[in-house]
Amino acid sequence: MCRTRAEGAVEMGKWKQLVLYLMLILLALTAFYSCEARFDAPVDKKKTVALIAGMKHGDYWRTVKLGAQMAAREFDLNLNFYAPDYENDPQSQIELVEQAARDGYDALVVAPSDEQVMQKALEQDNKQSMPILTLDEEGEYPMIRSYVGTDNYEMGKKAGEKMLAIIGKLGQVALIGSGEKQANTKRREQGVLDVMNGTAGVELVATRYVQSDKRQAGDLAREVIRSYPGVEGIIALDASTATRVAAEIERLGLQGKVKVVAIDSPPEVLEYLQEGVIQATIIQNPFSMGYLGVKYALEASEGKSIPKRLDTGTKVIDRENMFWSENQKLLFPFVK
Amino acid sequence: MKSFIASVVKALQVRSIQFIITTSFTLVTVLVMLFVGVMLYSKFSETAEQNAYLNTQQILEQVKYNLDSYLNAMTQIFELVDDKIRNNQGGSDGKLNEQLEAIVETRKDIVSIAVFSRSGELLTATPARQMRNHTQITEQSWFRSAIEDPHNLSFSLPHVQNLFKGEYPWVVSMSREITVKGSHGDIPAVLLVDVNFKEIDELCQRVGLGKKGYVYIIDLVGNIVYHPQQQLIYVGLKNENRALALKHSYGSYVEETEGDKRLITIKTIDPLGWKIIGISYMDEIVTTKKEISRFIFWLLIFVIVIVLLVLSYLSEKISRPIKMLERSMEQVEQGDFSVNHPITGSHEVQQLSLRFHLMVGKVRDLMNQNIRDQEAKRKSELEVLHAQINPHFLYNTLNSVVRMVGIGKNEDVITTITSLSKLFRISLSRGKSMITIQEELEHVRHYLIIQKMRYKQKFEYEITAEEAVLPCKTLKLLLQPIVENAIYHGIEQMADPGMIHIKASKSDGKVLLEVKDNGLGMSSQVREQVLAGTYKSNSGSGVGINNIHERIRLSFGEGYGLEIESEIETGTVVKLWIPHVQDES
After folding, report:
1. Where is each HAMP domain found (chain B) (predicted)?
2. What value does the mean pLDDT take over residues B453-463?
3. Owning domain of residue A291
């Protein structure tokens, strides 16, 4: 009796064991294949950074984008580049910031058109703890992780100093700009003023700002020249103003007589530079802005500490050095 | 599940077959797999590395080929332009301009064709466009190299062309000194063909070496012709070790910068001396290696798990019948000989099991035999004991003695009592079971004396023995029951006086004890019953004839025993065969 029960148990146990072994082998197989499947899938998730620039077009912003793309490729991250169609369009930028906040990014780099945009961005930052960096436009935002861009005060000083060097530290100088209320402009102006005020022989006779229509810059230049016939030089605080001032001076046939120091290097400015209407321009480094902006955005999203302020540097370009090979790539970033 | 755990625990018993099989096979498998894994890994990673090298080489070769052919095409165009200008000596400028315009139009990448005098004045330009101011032509590198090396075509570095109004295009300038016919005879001039750099730029941009790798080009002295991160280098955010690259014209080396290991591959475009430098990141190659090692690692674990499972199953299958056999043996050891279930398994184990069971069967039979033998012996010994002091016989004898005393036959009384005393003395014989034949015969003689007294000379007897057998040993009290039977069954009911003949002799090396009577005899049927011990008699000592047979055989073996020959009305002969055993002393 006892023996038959034992035999039965052995028989049953045999089947159970066989099934158990089969199941274990199956389990191992699936484990193996799932492990293998993991090899094919990307092992670590790529970070995604959004960059909201000032404008879609224009060499300046395209160079920013180029730099940002270079960084994205080098540090292996996804970059989404957004920009409004026109410059100084805070409303579109706010929409883009909101959209970016909805999509959710590891970090956000914004080149704000005005403070409203920044305000909006900071609101999103509070909600999502997404690190935000500003590019190009330096504001007074204590919440911002980092500013990557030009030291505009330094730029203004360089413009002033270059003007002094051109006119031989003697004579009348005028200042024309646009966007009076913008922080960048204010800093540039301050830079110029500090240089002028520190030099005895030089007098800053006029400071004019384009109010609404940028085309007014030419009129402003004409008015300044008429009011101050002895004016030696005009410092234009931004590229579009510089272009129009130069055009007006050329129209008046005063090229070489009224010296112009410009800011930035759009093709028009460079043409005037070669033609001798504009004597010098202070250029920024948008490529570095894009590159470093994305690089530090990535580091911020990884929790690394990044410098609060990063100066991408400026350079004084005149006709002498504009075709030096090391400057060519900065002045003409695109192969056309 | 429980049984599985139990089997695992059992498998862990260090010296069990299951454990030995599992561990040794696993060890062997692991070693083999490790070996194979290491071999595979080294082979794979070597191949991966080689592939990476080869791949880079091939890509660079392709770039070089493309650049080469592009520059060759441009050289041909330059030569064509040169030819046109040369052949036009004396012809009209208009015709030449048409021809040059046709060339510029068909090749979109030709930006401009221009001829300058040695002092830098523009002689002719296609397409005809207004010159810019402040071009400083004589300072430009293409102009200087044409003057310095008048006979060879020189290629400039890519630069921004600032000669004509309009856009600032990036060009590579091809220049050489030529002579053109002027109003005052032949004058030396410089022919400039500007080729749009876009083609080369795009060609290089398209090249990717892995995820991060790229290609850059430097000229003979290390100036950058093309670099995807040119701006970063100029502002000092990035550094490329161009000095080291300059030292190589072909081949590859590994360079370490800022913690990145990079594979640098270099090719040179021969006529220009431009170097194409490919940068691939080693960590991408290493990633492939890591993937391979991870794959092999998992494969190893997987195979080990499978092998462990299969082995534990197999070893369990092999060792289980052995364990069952062991259990059966344990059972037998504890005295249970009833085990009888054949074990299935490998052939060897089956054979083992078969033999074991046969053996157990034999042992069981032998033990049963032994038990039976012991029982029979004990029984016959009891009977012998019983015969030694047969109370019935004693009572009969004493009765006869009383009767004899009553009738005053004193001599008979003395004979009877003497015989009785001798009879008892021999039958006790100090507890020995073996006595000499002489004593046995003496014993039966005294018995007969007493019986003869009782039966009033109803029979006669004769005892004869060969002198040689007298000292031989025999079991005691063998003859007495036979004689008793002869008297009770053979002679008592006979009318004529009976005769009992007892004979001890030697025959065929054995000793033969014979009891012969001339009594009633018995039928062969009765004889069979007597021999089988089933015959019931209501008198006698109770010692069965068959028991005598058994006693002899138990003591001396199969070859000995008791035989009965009998015939009705003639008599019976009982033969006892015992071995010839002499006392040593």
Report:
1. 316-368
2. 87
3. 48-149+285-312
Nearest to B309 among A10, A21, A267 (CB): A21
Write the residue in A32, A73, A275 that is nearest to B302 by C-beta.
A32
As a whole number, mean pLDDT of residues B456-463 equals: 87
Chain CA centroid to CA B29, Å: 9
Which residue in B180, B18, B71 sits closest to B115, CA to CA? B180
Residue ranges of domains in chain B, CATH in brackets: 2-67+287-329 (no CATH), 389-579 (3.30.565.10)
Nearest to B160 among A21, A70, A328 (CB): A328
Percentage of chain A beyond pLDDT 70 is 89
CB contact under 8 A, B232 and A287: yes
**Alpha carbons B409 and B401: distance in angstroms, whole number:** 9
Q: b/e string for B487-506 if b means 16 or more Cβ within 10 A?
A: bbbbbbebeeebbbbbbbee
User: What are the E-state strand segments in B183-243?
Assistant: 185-196, 214-218, 224-226
| pLDDT score of A36 | 58
Nearest 5°: the CA angle B430, B432, B437 is 110
Which residues of B fall below an 8 Å CB-CB distance to A? 1, 3-4, 7, 132-134, 157-160, 162, 165, 167-170, 197-198, 201, 211-212, 223, 228-232, 234-235, 237, 291, 294-295, 298-299, 302, 305-306, 309-310, 313, 316, 320, 341
ipTM of the complex: 0.82
Are A158 and A110 members of one domain? Answer: no
